[in-house]
Design goal:
Immunoglobulin-like; about 170 residues; 10-stranded mixed beta sheet; about 20% helix; 1 helix; alpha+beta
Length: about 170
């Protein structure tokens, strides 16, 4: 009998632990689904939008957006358009060379994570733009942001001097 008891205990452990782990995983997935977040579509909004005033004779400048996504799925920003630029705006990423020089590298899209967001900065992702005319601080520049899944967003970014405080800008 002791051998049978040990065999049953070993068999229960070998089968019971994986079954218990699966049960816990299913309970967690059930709770996530019941909360309404499982597979919910992305819901991207822009909470901050500004563009640097062009400096000197430089033909390009940069725009920056803070994007939030309170949906249950990630989305990708795939295109940016503007009627206030001479060429289509381009997503780009800031890089440094080994000698300390900086350059922008174009990127096709950027991900806006689910239940999170993306903040563009001069040292990371930004939007390279070529202004149509002269932009002065306080003026607004229109943009249309297009996403892989969500609806296009029409926003206005305020022109600021490079290095200006941007934490109190109005919502776009």
């Amino acid at each position: 009998m002791p051998a049978l008891s040990a065999l049953l205990r070993t068999s229960f452990t070998a089968v019971g632990v994986p079954v218990l782990a699966c049960g816990i995983a299913l309970a967690g997935l059930g709770a996530w689904t019941a909360s309404g977040r499982a597979g919910s579509p992305p819901h991207v909004a822009v909470t901050k939008a500004y563009v640097y005033q062009p400096f000197g004779s430089t033909p390009e400048t940069a725009a920056f957006f803070t994007l939030t996504n309170d949906g249950g799925s990630a989305d990708r920003l795939v295109n940016i358009a503007s009627t206030d630029t001479v060429a289509p705006p381009r997503l780009s990423e800031h890089h440094m060379t080994s000698s300390g020089g900086a350059y922008r590298q174009p990127v096709d899209s950027v991900t806006v994570p689910a239940e999170d967001g993306l903040t563009m900065t001069p040292h990371g992702i930004d939007v390279t733009v070529r202004p149509k005319g002269t932009w002065r601080p306080g003026e607004e520049v229109s943009f249309t942001l297009r996403f892989a899944q969500g609806k296009p967003l029409k926003i206005r970014a305020v022109v600021v001097r490079p290095g200006a405080q941007t934490d109190r800008l109005p919502r776009p």
